[in-house]
Structures are given as C-alpha cells and as structure tokens.
Amino acid sequence: MKPEPDSENRTAAQHSTGPATPDPGAPEADGPGPEATTGSGPSAAGNADTVSRTGTSDEDQDPVAASGAERDGDRAVDAASEGDEGEGISTVARAVVASAPESRPGVAARAIAVATAWPRLTRLLSAAVAGLLLYASFPPRTLWYLAPVGIAVLTLAVRGTCRARGGFGFGFMAGLAFFLPLLPWTGIYVGPVPWIALSTVCAVYVGLFGLLTRWVATLPGWPLWVATVWSLTEWARASFPFGGFPWGKLAFGQADGWYLPFAMVGGAPLVSFAVALTGAGLAWLALSLLRRLTADAEDGGEAIAATSDSPRSGAIRPTSWNRIVAAAMLVAIVPLTGVILRTALPGPEDGNRPITVAAIQGSVPRLGLDFNAQRRAVLDNHVKRTEELARDIAAGRAPQPDVVIWPENSSDIDPLRNDDAAQEISQASKDVKAPILVGAVLVNDDRTTTNSVIVWNADAGPGERHDKKIIQPFGEYLPYRNFFRHFSEYADRAGYFVPGKGDGVVRAQPFTGGAPVAIGVATCYEVVFDRAFEESVRAGAQLLAVPSNNATFGRSEMTYQQLAMSRVRAVEHGRAVVVSVTTGVSAMITADGVIRQQTPQFEPAALVATLPLRNNTTFATRFGPAPEAIMCILAAAATAAALIRRRAQHL
Asked: What's the DSSP call for residue 27?
C-alpha cells in the first residue's frame, strides 16, 4: 500500500506541471494548515480555493499531481513566514535527494527513500533520538553539549507538521525517550507503575512543547519563541500537578557546561532558556543550509528550462547567506556568552569571612524502603563517624570544624521525645566541640510528622530548626490516598508528613566564636525547586546546606542528578553549598559550582573544608522568578500571535 504523503513531500511535487487532482478519499485535516494559506498572485488564490472547495489540505493531495499553481501558492506562504513554513526533519532527506542522488550508495539511497516515503516515521524516530540525547546530557555523564543538539532535533521533528496533534505526538515521544531512562530510580523498590506513570506525565509537557512549537515556528525570529515555549513548559511542569516536578530541567544537566554561569543572572530558568535557544538556533542553521542546498540543486537542474520570461523564473529562492550567518552567530554567541560570564563568578575563597564545616556521611544498615527499620543503627552510625572525626581532630589529623552537618533522616528517632537519642546527639556535639545540624523525623501531637533539621549544641540541646516546606508527593505523603492505594500495594507506605513554615534559615554559633552563621537549608527534594534557596538567601543565608537521604534510591543515577542541582544553586546564589547524604554522594561545593571534595557512595565518611561566608547577592537572587515569568509571558504572546496570524491567512 502506498504511504500517505506528508506535507514536507510537497517539494518533490513542485517539479510536476500536471493539473491538480485532489484525492476524494483523503481524510479531512483537523483545521486549515499553513499550507492552505493565501499568498500573493492568482496562483496562490487558486490553491486556497481548491482547499476551500474540497475540505482537503495539501498534505492529502497526490504530490505527483501537484500543479504549478499549488507550487506558487506554497512558495507565497513560505515567503509570508520567512521561507521556512512547513520545513522540518525531512528537509535533510530532500536536500540529499536533490544533490546527485545517482551517486548515493545503496544503503544511503534506501535510507533516503524511506525517510522521504515515510516522513511521519522519520519524525517519530527523530523525536525519540532527541529525547535520548537530552537524557544523555545529564549526570553522571558530562555530555552537557548534547542538550542543545537534542532540542535542535526535536524542533526539526515537530516543526512544520501539518496537524497540531502531530506536534504534540512527536513531542510526547521525545518526552518518553527522555524521562523513562532519567527516572527509573522512582520505581526501584516500588515497581514500575510509579516510574512509568511519572515519566508519562512529564512527557505530556514535552508534547505540549511540540504542539506550541508547531505554531510559533511560523513567526519571524522563531528560534527565540521556541526557546520561550520550552521555558513555559518547564515552568508548567514545575508547578502542576501536586506542586509540580521540576526534575529534568535542562539547567540541571549543565553543571559541567558552558551555560552554567547564566544561573547567576537568571537562575536555573535562564540556563534552560539559553540551552533551548542554542538548540533552536541549530535547527534554524540546519534548515537554512539545507534549504539553500536543495534550492541550488534544483536550480542547477532547471537553469536551462527556466528563462527570465518563464513562470518558473525566480520560483527557487535559496536562503540568503545573511540568514545562514545570523543563525551561525546565534549558535555561537549564546554559549560563548556563558564562557565570558564565567569570569564574573566568585573565586572559591572570595567572601566575607571563612568558617570550617564538616559533613558527616554515616551510611545505613541496608538500602531500600526498610533502610530505617533499624533506626537506632542509622543514628549510631552518624554518632560513631562524628566521634571518629573528633579523635582525628584531637590527633591533629583533621581541622576543628565550626559547625557539623548531618544528613536528612540521620535520626529517625525523634530526639525531642526520646531522651536516649537526645543524649547521644549531645555527646557527639560535645566530643566534636561544634554544633550539629541534625536531620530528624519529629512526631507532632496529631501523629503527623515533620522532616526537620535541628541545630543541636552540646549540653544546650536543640535550638533553631527548619521544617521541610516542600514535601514529596507519593513519598512523604500520598495525595488522594484512598484512590491511589488501588494501583500499588506500596501506597500505604507513603508517609504522613506535613509541610513546615519559615524562611529556610537556621543559625548556629561557630566554634571559633563571632556572629552566628546563617545557614540556608533545602532538605533533599527541596533543592530541585527554585524558590527554596531563593527565599533563604533573601532572608540572610551566608552558606547553603543540602542534607539528603538517598538510601531509598539504591545505586541509581539519582544522587548524581541531585548533586548537579546543588552545583547550579551554588552559582545561582553565589554561595558555597554543603551536601550531606546518608549514603553519598556528599560534597563541598564552592560558589563557582566546582566540587572541591566529595565522598564515594555507601561508605561512612567525613568531609572537612574551609568555606567562605558571603553576604553579596547575585542578579538571580534579586530578580527571583521575574526572568522566568517574562519568558512565559513572551511564549504565551507568541503563541497567541501565531494563532491569530494563521487564522488571518486562512480567511
């Protein structure tokens, strides 16, 4: 059976001069596509009239029977949208076919034939490749430069599709190829259903990107609007449902890349925007080069037949070199700006005054959901490793810390209700001669729990505390518990945690004296949200801490993905960050995003480093969510303009 021609195959149809014969059995399009747009001249009007009478779009007509009037109408539409309307991933195949196809080896010729004959399959496979490229750009790999390439391939896959649902479908495929390999740690101990469900929900937002890109890519300057659309969909995913899930933002794969310094100007959203803008620029450059290649090849074959008086004269309009140069400059300027911005990052020792900080990694008896079945053993492990550090300090093998940071859940026994746990923590603080930030699970009077970080100072006991404000749905609590328990036997193992309040800052008196140190805390899951550290730094945090517990995620890539987020946050707010994890990886990160020390996984360890306290604020901290809001507003405005423009062209 002959495959149904897609819109991008109209270029092949442009060589025919026979009468236009619409296929009476062709399915009706969802709505008037850009191919049916009226253009200048009678031929364009005739093309629009054909679509109006038959209700059949150009994509459903036999490309071999396309008329010269249809060609001129299509080119008129191309001119109205800067000559790129309807182009996408299959432009590559058309360009290769146009340039001496007889010289192609058999395998390449067959591949080109398949891409030309099956454009939808080509787009689908391209979308899957785009998603895999995005995944490969994330830690523990350092292939950050694959992210803009992935965005470019995805843009080409969805751009120029004839139906809106096509843009969504190709984007959704890319989302699945991205999130399914990125998030398997969510189902390690609870089965594949939560993992697949979460990945599918996240993929919907990439599908939304494909849908919106299909529209805004018809506007002049479309790479800018495509990048803002990516920002809009990232914001939406970080907000809905159940408080959102920002994991997988493009920014979090750029900790080792050239784009990281953008974080100090506009935070993680600006980093993602810069990556997406480069990717859209790459797509623009590829289309411009291939369009010129196609036009040059066609022009070479038709130069004899086309005269100055012929209707074909001037029909082939290759992309100008000015546009190619502009696209190349965009692709080069954005990452190079990031390289230049790196010179403005603070040095590892720049700050107001230094303090010495220790991070304890005590490890757990076993991994999995039952890691805390021996809760006393988890507490004992952290006390033991702290006391070992105290002996090293006494022997001169380690410097004296001003403050010690334990991980999240280092005391799942409530030390405010359990005297034995309180005494053990107090003794550890006394031995190490420094206050300890203890990650503890506290039981409230109504039997709910809070995930807290408490400043514990020897005999003085508990002081200020941070109660985790952004708690994890389907882990620390279960929304609609009675509903979701029907889908997984693990549903009732979700906690009954409640969110806390406050500004995310705790203050500890350093061992060496002086003013108390204001430490901003984002406990584990909180670090993925922009607002967590933004609020604490605005409240005066001079140093940032990420106490975390990754025992429930085994030996997955999750801990490295989370570590990269901490590096982005360090640059975003110009603060050193201390990452303390029960099972690793714990790390000391300076304000330039560089890891100065880190531990291996699943080994008890202690890190001690001198880090600067800083009071200066970055542009990202001052601007807060404003840059992301501006990008989202621009994306919404561009989408509205594209739809209005499209409707006007079809009236």
From this structure: P
What is the distance between the alpha carbons of residues 203 and 217, in angstroms, rounded to a whole number?
21
Question: Do the beta carbons of residue 270 and residue 262 sit within 8 Å?
Answer: yes
The alpha carbon of residue 67 and the mean position of all alpha carbons in its chain are separated, in whole angstroms, by 45
Residue 355's SS3 state is strand
Tokens of 233: 């969909």
Query: With bands split at pLDDT 50, 70 and 90, how would you rate the model's confidence at 521?
Result: very high
Is residue 468 flagged as an active site residue? Answer: yes
Question: pLDDT tens across 286-337, in order?
Answer: 999 888 777 665 555 454 344 344 444 344 455 678 889 999 999 999 999 9
Query: Which residue of the set 524, 526, 535, 557 is catalytic?
Result: 524
427-460 in b/e form (b: 16+ CB < 10 A) is ebbebbebbbbbbbbbeeeeeebbbbbbbbbbee
**Is residue 408 flagged as an active site residue?**
yes
Catalytic annotation on 632?
no
Q: Compute the distance between CA of residue 292 and CA of residue 288 in angstroms, rounded to an integer.
A: 6
Q: How far is CA 462 from the centre of its chain?
A: 39
* pTM, 2 dp: 0.82
CA distance 476 to 495: 4
Taking only the tens place, the pLDDT of each residue in 63-122 is: 333 333 333 333 333 333 344 445 665 555 555 555 444 444 566 567 667 767 888 889
Selecting among 408, 526, 534, 535, the annotated active-site residue is 408
Q: Which residue is catalytic, options 162, 234, 468, 469? A: 468
Quick check: helix, strand or coil at residue 581? strand
Q: In the prediction, which pLDDT does 65 show? A: 34
- Contact between 335 and 259 under an 8 Å Cβ cutoff? The reply is yes
